């Protein structure tokens, strides 16, 4: 018979072995889910049970960008030619939300034909490995990098350039690359100016880095919203969530909220609606 002291020792040994055991290997099956996160450590895909997103109809003030990205994505998911897309501009205006919302809409219309794979900025050097894995699948895939930008002496943009269009293999036919960034040319102004001031041929040095943006056939700009668009965002959210306030009261409170934040954007609108829903006891199904 095992006494209590021996059982305690065995339990501690079992716990130690569990901590030392390698993590469960990521999958390489693109049909395991609709969304994945690229696991650079295990060189595999971590399935996402439920993608964090909003309904495409709730996105206000970006109707033109929405239509262009939707059309491009739908063509791709149905086997037609399409372009890589760069969504750039003001923070909080729905760039990443639009990517996820369009993916959901297109996936619904194509019977789950499209997977969304997020790769983190710091893992871009492993992008060729990811594309080699995806190339083996018959499922169409949008590889997505949020908040993409490059700092001084960062050379990972070179591998991204080669993978997007310039490499000997080229981009797999079943892959599109979507990126969001606050910068149109994916690098800071200081970085560009430094290239001009230190290079022997300044224009050539700048051209090498700026040309990364040229790998994206679709450029979608997102700009700070005006007050009417801000109100439209809030009213759309409130209508969908069943928050019943008069338009005048809602707008007065929305104005007060912007004063505390010092800006208007889709993100600020959603934060206001979350605060309002909590105050009124209205649950939000995330």
Order of helical and strand elements: HEEHEHEHEHEHHEHHH
In round numbers, the mean pLDDT is 83
Overall tally of domains: 2
The CATH architecture of the largest domain would be 3-Layer(aba) Sandwich
Main structural class: alpha/beta
The main sheet orders its strands as 2-1-4-5-6-3-7
Instruction: Give the helix level as a range of percent.
Output: 40-55%
Low-confidence stretches: none
% residues in beta strands: 5-15%
Distance between the termini: 51 Å
Question: Layout of SSEs?
Answer:
Elements: H1 4-20, E1 35-39, E2 44-48, H2 63-77, E3 85-89, H3 95-109, E4 114-118, H4 127-135, E5 140-145, H5 156-166, E6 175-181, H6 189-198, H7 202-210, E7 218-222, H8 227-241, H9 247-261, H10 266-280
Parallel strand pairs: 1-4, 3-6, 3-7, 4-5, 5-6
Antiparallel strand pairs: 1-2
Helix pairs in contact: 2-3, 6-7, 8-10
Short descriptors:
Rossmann fold; alpha/beta; globular; about 290 residues; 7-stranded mixed beta sheet; 7 strands; 2 domains
Would you give an account of this structure?
The protein contains ten helices and seven strands. The longest helix has 17 residues. It has a seven-stranded mixed sheet with strand order 2-1-4-5-6-3-7. It has two domains: 188 residues, P-loop containing nucleotide triphosphate hydrolases (Rossmann fold); 54 residues. It starts with a helix and ends in a 6-residue tail after the last helix. The protein has 286 residues and is an alpha/beta fold. α4 links the parallel β4 and β5.
